[in-house]
């Protein structure tokens, strides 16, 4: 992916893309949770799902996929940090 005309703010805070970070099955599971538990967000055409809502409404078992994502993301960030500090 090519970066064209990146602003100074973008250069100061680069984004990292993690291709295939989440499996297709996990994405479908998260989409199902969102579609089945979402409430109307700040606009009528926007749906919102929050972790607090899931846990407060007796749907705490639906938080488990998010724990999995959190652990995967934590490991990915630690790997990037390790590479950064190893080079620096």
From TrEMBL:
Protein name per UniProt: 2-oxoglutarate (2OG) and Fe(II)-dependent oxygenase superfamily protein
Annotated organism of origin: Rhynchospora pubera
